[in-house]
Amino acid sequence: MIVVGVRSDTVPRQRMPGVRERPDGRHVRGRDPGGNTDIPGAVIGKIAARAVGEVPGARSSRSRAARTRVSGEVVLLRLRIDVDYPLPVRRVAGAVREHVKSRVERITGKQVNHIDIEISELVR
């Protein structure tokens, strides 16, 4: 018996070539068979600095907003941010840390292990 046009409440996950799923649900990209792709630390720093501006109540500091250190597939970040006064600084810093980590990992495919945040100014 052939059933055509059956609807379901769930959609099967799409498989992407070269991507496998880890047990924790995250995707891991395999080696690119076409060659290497190098993403310099300066580019990752710009991605991180822009991601800071996407968090409500935070913006990148004007000078030296992001410093990066890349070792293979691992990224370490140091961010300088301004926080809107009177928002809770730790809460804003936590939101920045989560968002930047997510954004950098999604765009670059590299793993962000550590993000240091320096609050450079409270802005009215």
Write the layout of secondary structure elements.
Elements: E1 19-21, E2 27-29, H1 41-52, E3 58-60, E4 66-71, E5 74-84, H2 89-108, E6 111-123
Helix pairs in contact: 1-2
Describe this entry's structure for a reader.
With 124 residues, the protein is of the alpha+beta class. It has a domain at 40-123: Cation efflux protein, cytoplasmic domain (Alpha-Beta Plaits). The protein contains two helices and six strands. It starts with 18 loop residues before the first strand and ends with a strand. Residues 14-40 are annotated as: Disordered. This is Asp23/Gls24 family envelope stress response protein. Residues 18-32 have a biased composition (Basic and acidic residues).
What is shown here, in short?
With 124 residues, the chain is of the alpha+beta class.
Uncertain runs: none
Give me the Rg, rounded: 19 Å
In the CATH scheme, the class of one domain would be: Alpha Beta
Share of helical residues: 25-40%
What is the averaged pLDDT score?
A: 85
Total helices: the number is 2
Q: What is the strand tally? A: 6
Q: What amount of the residues lies in strands?
A: 25-35%
The fourth-level CATH homologous superfamily of one domain is: Cation efflux protein, cytoplasmic domain
CATH architecture of one domain: 2-Layer Sandwich
- The helix/strand class is alpha+beta
The shape, in one word, is: elongated
- Major sheet attributes: 4 strands, mixed
Span between termini = 69 Å
Element order, helices and strands?
EEHEEEHE
- Enter the CATH topology name of one domain: Alpha-Beta Plaits
